[in-house]
């Protein structure tokens, strides 16, 4: 039993060590999806802008708490070349609930529907929601954020502003 | 035998670096991303009560010893290579059981068998496989995927084979999928055999059975004009375990069709300030197991939604009527997933054993309306909702012998400001039998999440989820009961969370036992994010078994007692 515990500890230590590794600079996988009004939107068309791709679902409480902060950032930093692309990961059966949720919050960012979970499976194979991917002007992933707790938006905004200001 | 298992455990973590591929080949310079989800669990089983007679098992051979306790290690590694418009994905799943062994009647026995007949593995207590793999390329007007893909048409009534990690379901279609954008028209085609997730990431792995390959092929065309018009068709040929040669192979294509679903959709946004959606589908069953006779059977489904936005209010009305649509799930529900389903209209956190009838009924119609009032948009939104359904299905596993009238009023609020947050939902559901002598099933429920900032970066979060059930007369009579799943979390500094969980249930049919009392379960968890892309969790205690629903699918999930350590990272 002690041997097993030691092995478990070794595995956890390895993971913690590699946790410091970063995927920064890797190319963000391209995608095209329809928005909540049926318009086609492609990630390629955002090249030259800093983009935050936000994965969420109507049933996800923390996602809904985060959205007003993303909307504020989207509006205030839009002129500096920043955009939020929000992707609903609700499956097809809940699609009718997505637009009402966006309208009641008065959110102005782009909202796309990933009804068959294709894009979320590429970006976020695990189950964490919300899940944010910050992409630089060259289309490379800058940083990933798992989950949301009130207050997390402060650090996220700091990172977005720094990336926008850096011109990368 | 144990050494290979350690190697298996390490496979899930070794390549945790992001890098660019080298060389001069076509993938030179491609980006590589790796996501890992690793978990180590110690499953604890209660000892038999003193004096209990145990026979023909390990407890008789090793009295007083926890012979059914075991370690389980589960790893999921996703690798994605991206170069320009090309993506190559691969998911490796592995599980290792460090269970106990004993000799009974001269044969070595495992206290927990990892897999059953038909599953091939070089190790008795280890199993790994390439669970998903795909190559995807994106051109200007075409997305083409070869390998594992997901498919969903309309509102999922004809086809909805998607990933549902919330209940640990990940069935894909292994074959080919194409999305062709021809001006205002999108054409989606998909064909393949189903590939069901075999290694559970969140639930215990034991007696893993071979993947059963059902054939699914479908196409959908959509025209995006002033309104969006769509039409689709899906054909199915399901595998039977009585025909093993066909059950696991592409030969499924050569067998007769069991079912076909055809449908049409209309969507209009902003017409007189309304968003409208309508869908109708016809189910054509030819399999005797579904049709009930060799002559075949037709079923149908209709679903519609209307959203209106008067002033600060948002009104969403959904309605559905279905007849014989659930027969399509005859084979796959036994495997824990469903290829298609009609939107439930229910608030899914309250769906229960009896309520599942309103989810999976073969003859139901009704509507749900929800009104949100955005008093302070994005900050303070109370709502009311009510649903009314008539469930005429009295067969199968349904509790009711006469039709039911399902009524479910609800209310709630969402509030967030200055790092305070409240999300509250409460309601009462009545499933009133038409035959009044049979009474009604009733459920009162409340769930809430309250986040309170304290000082500095410290914060407290309280989660409450409680339900009280009372049952009418039925053949599978069960006792009234109460169940709760609560938690208190302390958010400490940057990236630390300490959570106390408390479950309660006095449901006599529950398939688990409390660790703090017959009905009381307790657990403690530490969560830590050393960086934004990595989450570490350590859990000790127990939680109850129960039915959990997500996205219209419900699964009966086992309880757990013991310890678990998990790492989730994106690299």
The assigned structural class of chain A equals: alpha/beta
Helices of chain B, by number, come to 5
Instruction: Give me the count of strands of chain A.
Output: 7
Write out the strand line-up for the largest beta sheet of chain A, numbering strands in chain order.
5-4-3-6-7
The stretches of 5 or more residues of chain A where confidence is low (pLDDT under 50) are: 1-22
Cα-atom Rg of chain A, whole angstroms?
17 Å
Q: Tell me what portion of residues of chain A adopts beta-strand conformation.
A: 15-25%
Order of helices and strands of chain A: HEEEHEHEHEEH
User: How large is the count of helical segments of chain A?
Assistant: 5
> How would a textbook summarize the main sheet of chain B?
24 strands, antiparallel, barrel
Q: What kind of oligomer do you see?
A: heterodimer
Q: What is the average of the pLDDT values of chain B?
A: 86
Specify Rg of chain B, calculated over alpha carbons: 26 Å
Please mark out the parts of chain B with pLDDT under 50 across 5 or more consecutive residues, or reply none: 1-18
Structural class of chain B: mainly beta
Shape type of chain A: globular
The percent range for helix content of chain A is: 25-40%
């Amino acid at each position: 039993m002690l041997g097993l515990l030691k092995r478990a500890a070794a595995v956890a230590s390895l993971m913690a060590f590699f946790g410091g590794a970063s995927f920064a600079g890797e190319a963000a996988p391209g995608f095209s999806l329809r928005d909540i009004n049926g318009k086609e939107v492609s990630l390629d068309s955002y090249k030259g802008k800093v983009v935050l791709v936000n994965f969420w679902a109507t049933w996800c409480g923390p996602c809904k708490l985060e959205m007003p902060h993303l909307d504020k950032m989207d509006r205030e930093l839009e002129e500096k070349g920043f955009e939020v692309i929000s992707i609903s990961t609700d499956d097809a059966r809940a699609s009718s609930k997505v637009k009402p949720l966006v309208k009641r919050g008065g959110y102005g960012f782009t909202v796309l529907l990933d009804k068959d979970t294709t894009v979320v499976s590429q970006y976020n194979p695990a189950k964490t929601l919300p899940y944010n991917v910050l992409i630089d002007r060259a289309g490379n992933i800058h940083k990933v954020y798992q989950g949301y707790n009130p207050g997390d938006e402060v650090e996220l905004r700091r990172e977005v502003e720094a990336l926008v200001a850096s011109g990368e | 035998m144990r050494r290979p298992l350690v190697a298996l455990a390490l496979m899930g973590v070794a390549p945790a670096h992001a890098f660019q591929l080298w060389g001069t080949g076509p993938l030179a310079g491609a980006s590589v991303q790796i996501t890992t989800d690793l978990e180590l669990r110690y499953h604890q089983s209660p000892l038999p009560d003193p004096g209990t007679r145990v026979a023909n098992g390990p407890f008789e051979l090793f009295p007083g010893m926890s012979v059914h306790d075991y370690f389980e290690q589960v790893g999921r590694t996703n690798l994605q290579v991206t170069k320009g418009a090309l993506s190559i994905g691969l998911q490796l799943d592995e599980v290792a059981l460090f269970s106990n062994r004993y000799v009974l009647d001269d044969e070595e026995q495992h206290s927990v068998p990892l897999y059953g007949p038909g599953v091939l593995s070089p190790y008795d207590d280890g199993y790994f496989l390439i669970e998903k793999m795909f190559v995807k390329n994106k051109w200007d007007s075409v997305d083409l995927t070869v390998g594992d893909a997901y498919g969903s048409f309309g509102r999922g009534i004809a086809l909805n084979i998607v990933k549902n990690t919330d209940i640990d379901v990940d069935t894909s279609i292994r074959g080919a999928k194409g999305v062709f954008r021809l001006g205002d028209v999108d054409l989606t085609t998909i064909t393949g055999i189903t590939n069901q997730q075999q290694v559970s990431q969140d639930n215990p792995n034991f007696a893993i059975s071979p993947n059963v390959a059902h054939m699914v092929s479908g196409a959908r065309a959509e025209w995006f004009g002033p309104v969006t018009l769509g039409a689709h068709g899906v054909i199915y040929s399901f595998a039977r375990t009585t025909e093993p040669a066909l059950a696991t192979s592409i030969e499924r294509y050569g067998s007769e069709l069991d079912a076909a679903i055809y449908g049409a959709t209309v969507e209009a946004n902003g017409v007189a300030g309304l968003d409208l959606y309508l869908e109708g589908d016809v189910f054509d069953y030819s399999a005797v197991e579904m049709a009930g006779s060799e002559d075949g059977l037709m079923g149908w489904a209709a679903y519609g939604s209307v959203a209106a936005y008067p002033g600060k209010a948002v009104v969403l009305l959904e309605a559905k009527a279905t007849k014989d649509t659930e027969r399509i799930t005859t084979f796959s529900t036994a495997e824990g997933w469903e290829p298609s389903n009609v939107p439930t209209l229910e608030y899914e956190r309250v769906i229960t054993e009896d309520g599942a009838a309103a989810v999976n009924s073969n003859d139901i119609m009704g509507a749900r309306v929800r009104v949100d009032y955005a008093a302070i948009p994005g900050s303070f939104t109370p709502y009311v909702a009510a649903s009314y359904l008539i469930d005429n299905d009295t067969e199968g596993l349904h509790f009711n012998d006469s039709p039911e009238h399902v009524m479910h009023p609800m209310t709630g609020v969402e509030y967030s400001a200055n790092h305070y947050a409240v999300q509250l939902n409460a309601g009462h559901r009545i499933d009133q039998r038409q035959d009044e002598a049979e009474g009604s099933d009733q459920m009162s429920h409340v769930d809430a999440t309250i986040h309170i900032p304290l000082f500095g970066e410290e914060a407290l979060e309280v989660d409450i989820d409680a339900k009280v059930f009372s049952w009418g007369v039925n053949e599978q009579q069960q006792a009234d009961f109460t169940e709760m799943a609560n938690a208190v979390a302390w958010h400490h500094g940057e990236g630390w969370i300490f959570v106390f969980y408390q479950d309660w249930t006095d449901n006599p049919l529950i398939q688990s036992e409390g660790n703090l009392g017959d009905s009381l379960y307790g657990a403690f968890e530490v969560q830590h994010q050393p960086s934004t892309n990595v989450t570490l969790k350590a859990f000790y205690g127990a939680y109850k078994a129960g039915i959990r629903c997500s996205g219209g699918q419900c699964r009966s999930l086992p309880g757990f007692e013991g310890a678990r350590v998990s790492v989730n990272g994106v690299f």
